[in-house]
Design brief:
The protein is α+β, with helices and mostly antiparallel strands and about 950 residues long. It is built from 23 helices and 30 strands. Strands 1, 2, 3, 4, 5, 6 and 7 form a 7-stranded antiparallel beta sheet that branches. The longest helix has about 80 residues. The protein is elongated, with a radius of gyration of 69 Å. The N and C termini lie far apart (about 140 Å). InterPro entries: CheY-like_superfamily, HAMP_dom, HATPase_C_sf, HATPase_dom, His_kinase_dom, HisK_dim/P_dom, HisK_dim/P_sf, PAS-like_dom_sf.
């Protein structure tokens, strides 16, 4: 048995249907071709009738314009004369006569063109005009009348009939006040009776008729013109709504009434009468007695819009009319057969395209799914048929396979992530037997192979102490999982049987929908350590804030104390100068000055310790590094610790920041004090000229943290203690931030790191030597200053001494303005400067001082001002004063120089800078020296 494919079977099934469809298509095509030809014939005949009717209407309308022109001319002339208050003149009437004469000459086909006026409407009775042309006018009637016609090229003017005013061609137009077209009637043209059709136009003056203009068309002459209209070789005819033949190819019928009936001799059928009476177009087929088939087409012949009185009738033999369309039917038949054949072919192709190929594509998609190709989307899913349903069903199946494959890959990825997670992850049964464990989970229980752990409990791999801690939590875990579904806890000091120990482990347990327990364990030892360090650091930062607050308080107190101490020392100096030498009172004054000087040094040390500004380096004597720090250092360490400070004589100056160097010594001394073995100990600070050998016994460990400067002179600062010492591996790390060997809460690990940063900023070197049980030596190498002089307060004092020595002339008398908000300080300066002979004005308000300086009559030579005052600083006051008096000597004094130093003061316009408590004598000498340089 032959097995046919599905497309072939479908083709065999549709062949009978295709044959039936082909026959039906041929029948439909035959009928359609007949309908198309008839449609074309009707349209063609109707268009031809319309075209003929329009041509006839156009020729008549052209003739009618002659009469219309006459009417318009007369109306225009009459209107003009009426405005002027008179009637038409003789020349006006001659103009009308000439227009009619020329119109008749230019249009000989017109039977006549005429104009009849009402009595006296255009002037006198026309006697004068008749004298010019005897054929014009009607003497004795008061009428102007004229009839013009052209005969053999000659225009003839004739008088109208005597009864023209009662004839339709005149009376009807005059009565209706509009264009009137008369039916054919007989009218004598040059004495010859002629059948004409008249078109009359009333000439109006407002609502009054003053005459009628008209034109006569000779019907026989028109008939000869219409005889030339023979579309398709067939004659045309014109009938009016009165059922009278206006034109007919049989001229004998012109003017006769048409016949209506259903007999073979009738000109129209009864059904056509209604269309004729209303001049409505229509078409129909007629059959003559000899069997000839005619097609009648009609169309209105309108001489003006809305007239509707004439109908053109055209009878065309059907064979002549259908001749041009004979080939259309054959073409339609051939096209229909071809379409039927094409449709049959399309049906065969459609079976292949719509059914066979989609099935093949679906088969290919199924084969791909069977081979594991899940990424290719199946085709034909958007089809609304059975094949689309199959495609959509297979696509759902493919997506299921894709989701399954994606789920499998996701599970593999999750498993891979879990395997390398830093947390230990376990999956346990309800009896806490391990079902799954990742690599970190194996490490946490001290095993390397998962097979050794699966199916067993964790408690079997940890120490008894850890197992006991797990057992103690088991009841709590069960209750929390039953009520909340999750439990979180921790076990400290986790230890396994293999020796793996962890400070703390945090557990999180939850139940999955299947009833298994998921446990995530994390080693939180490092987190706990970081948290402890954070808390310690936070406490240290709070302590540092307290120290800064204390420093600010000390600065404020020292600032106010400087003003008081300056007044004490100043007045004590006055007493020492005024009292006799050797007297008891002079001794008391000298003791006050001595104690005050010690207090001055103490305040300067406190202010230096409390400074928080950036490290500005200046040239200072090397010895001052130790001397400035001794007062503060001795109060820092207890009396049981012996502090020894030595400095070599003749040391060169250093370019350093005294405050930062004091911080270095403070950190090193405090560190040495904390390293004591017991309650007592020795700390030695040495300052020597370099280079010095850095040699120690072999059992001492040494480390050069920062290399010493080579090739330049330098000074060596050493701090040595007899403390517990440091092991060798701690020497290099002791200057790292946050590294400390002190107990918890006893050190920040920042002190020595600060020392290292300050030494590097000074371009120095740093080395350390230590031995456990013997002590530690820290050596700092500082480059010495090789310039010709140094700056700072010492340099200023030296300059003052030189100026004092060089001064030989007596001091000048100056007008000095002292500005200080502390009354005692202001009065002290008034007293001291007045003793020198200067004229002194004291002011406590800097703004009031500006007003005094603005007074040109004051003539101040110098301004001495404090820095910190309410409303305005001393620097701002000097800047404003210099702007008004550039030559004014300005001296700035301050009890605390955290925000301003000598360099800043000079940059701001100050000529001299003093730190309180100041020496009144030094101030006066400096003031005199500055004035001497400007004289």
């Amino acid at each position: 048995m032959i097995r046919l494919s599905l497309p072939v079977r479908l083709l065999l099934a549709i062949l009978p249907a295709a044959g039936i469809m082909l026959g039906g298509m041929i029948l439909v095509t035959v009928h359609l071709s007949q309908q198309v030809v008839e449609h074309f014939v009707n349209d063609y005949g109707r268009d031809t009738a319309q075209r003929e009717a329009l041509a006839i209407s156009a020729s008549v309308k052209e003739a009618m314009t002659l009469a219309e022109g006459t009417a318009r001319m007369v109306s225009a002339l009459a209107a003009t004369r009426e405005v002027e208050g008179g009637r038409l003149t003789l020349s006006d009437r001659r103009q009308v006569t000439e227009y009619l004469r020329q119109a008749a000459a230019l249009h000989p086909e017109v039977a006549g063109i005429w104009f009849y006026a009402e009595p006296d409407a255009l002037g006198p009775d026309g006697a004068a005009l008749a004298a010019h042309d005897a054929q014009v006018g009607m003497p004795g009637t008061g009428r102007y009348a004229l009839h013009a016609s052209s005969q053999e090229g000659t225009v003839r003017l004739a008088p109208p009939p005597a009864d023209f005013d009662v004839q339709d061609y005149y009376a009807r137009a005059a009565r209706r006040h509009r264009l009137t077209v008369l039916p054919p009637h007989e009218f004598p043209i040059l004495g010859v009776p002629t059948i004409v059709v008249s078109h009359a136009y009333p000439v109006m003056m407002g609502d009054r008729v003053i005459g009628v203009a008209g034109i006569d068309l000779d019907q026989k002459a028109r008939a000869r013109i219409y005889d030339g209209h023979r579309p398709f070789g067939a004659p045309v005819a014109i009938i009016n709504t009165s059922e009278v033949w206006v034109y007919h190819s049989d001229h004998a019928l012109v003017g006769s009434t048409a016949t209506f009936g259903n007999g073979p001799g009738d000109q129209f059928s009864v059904g056509e009468q209604v269309f004729v009476d209303q001049a409505q177009p229509y078409s129909l087929e007629r059959r003559l007695a000899d069997g000839t088939r005619l097609k009648r087409f009609t169309w209105p012949v309108d001489l003006f819009p809305g007239e509707g009185r004439r109908l053109l009738v055209m009878d065309v033999p059907l064979d002549r009319l259908a001749g041009p369309f004979a080939g259309i039917r054959t073409a339609i038949l051939v096209a229909g057969v071809l379409c039927a054949l094409l449709l049959t072919g399309l049906m065969v192709a459609a079976v292949r395209l719509i059914v066979a190929q989609p099935l093949k594509r679906l088969q290919a998609g199924v084969d791909g799914l069977s081979q594991g190709d899940y990424d290719r989307t199946l085709p034909d899913q958007d089809r609304p048929d059975v094949i689309g349903d199959l495609a959509r069903g297979l696509e759902d199946f493919r997506r299921t396979l894709v989701e399954r494959d994606s789920l499998r890959r996701d599970l593999q990825r999750v498993a891979a992530c879990i395997a390398v997670a830093h947390d230990a992850i376990y999956m346990m049964s309800r009896d806490y037997d391990v079902l799954y464990a990742n690599d970190q989970a194996l490490t946490l229980v001290g095993v390397t192979d998962a097979k050794d752990l699966l199916g067993r409990r964790i408690s079997q791999f940890v120490t008894p102490e850890t197992a006991a801690a797990l057992a103690a939590l088991r009841q709590q875990i069960s209750v929390s999982l039953a009520h909340k579904g999750v439990w979180t806890g921790r076990i400290d000091n986790w230890a396994t049987l293999t020796g793996y120990e962890v400070e703390a482990v945090e557990f999180t347990a939850s139940i999955d929908p299947g009833g298994d327990i998921l446990v995530v364990a994390r080693d939180v030892s490092e987190r706990d350590r970081v948290e402890r360090e954070r808390q310690v650091l936070q406490r240290q930062i709070l302590q540092q804030d307290k120290l800064e607050t204390v420093g600010q308080l000390a600065s404020g107190v020292a600032h106010d104390f400087n003003n008081l101490l300056g007044a004490i020392l100043g007045y004590a100096g006055f007493l020492s100068t005024d009292l006799a030498a050797g007297s008891a009172a002079r001794g008391y004054a000298d003791r006050i000055l001595e104690v005050g000087a010690r207090a001055k040094d103490l305040v300067r040390q406190i202010l230096g310790f409390a400074r928080t500004d950036a490290g500005v380096q200046e040239v200072v004597p090397a010895r001052t590094i130790i001397e400035d720090a001794q007062v503060v250092l001795r109060s820092t360490v207890p009396a049981t610790t012996r502090l020894t400070c030595t400095a070599e004589e003749g040391l060169p100056p250093l370019r350093a920041n005294p405050t930062q160097m004091m911080q270095v010594l403070m950190n090193l001394v405090i560190n040495a004090h904390d390293a004591r073995r017991g309650d007592a100990g020795d700390i030695t600070i040495r300052l020597n000229r370099g280079p010095l050998p850095f040699a120690f016994p072999p059992d001492w460990a040494t480390a050069e943290i920062v290399p010493a400067p080579a090739g330049v002179p330098h000074v060596v600062l050493e701090v040595a203690d007899q403390g517990s010492g440091l092991p060798p591996d701690h020497l290099a790390r002791m200057f790292e931030p946050f590294f400390t060997t002190k107990g918890q809460d006893k050190g920040t690990g920042l002190g020595l790191a600060n020392v290292l940063s300050i030494v590097k900023a000074h371009g120095g070197g740093l080395a350390v030597a230590s031995r456990p049980g013997a002590g530690t030596v820290i050596r700092i190498t500082l480059p010495s200053f090789s310039g010709p002089s140094f700056s700072g307060p010492a340099a200023m004092a030296a300059a003052d001494e030189q100026s004092e020595t060089a001064r030989t002339a007596p001091p000048a008398i100056l007008r000095v303005l002292v500005v200080d908000d502390t009354e005692a300080m202001g009065e002290l300066l008034r007293e001291g400067l007045s003793r020198r002979g200067h004229e002194v004005t004291v002011c406590g308000d800097p703004r009031a001082a500006l007003d005094l300086l603005s007074d040109t009559a004051s003539g101040f030579n110098a301004l001495i001002t404090d820095q910190v005052m309410p409303g305005m600083t001393g620097m701002s006051l000097i800047h404003a004063a210099k702007g008004r008096h550039p030559g004014l000597i300005c001296v700035l004094c301050t009890g605390y120089s955290a925000n301003v130093d000598e360099a800043a003061a000079r940059a701001g316009g100050a000529d001299a800078f003093f730190i309180k408590p100041l020496s009144v004598k030094a101030l006066m000498d400096r003031l005199d020296a500055l004035y001497d340089t400007r004289r």
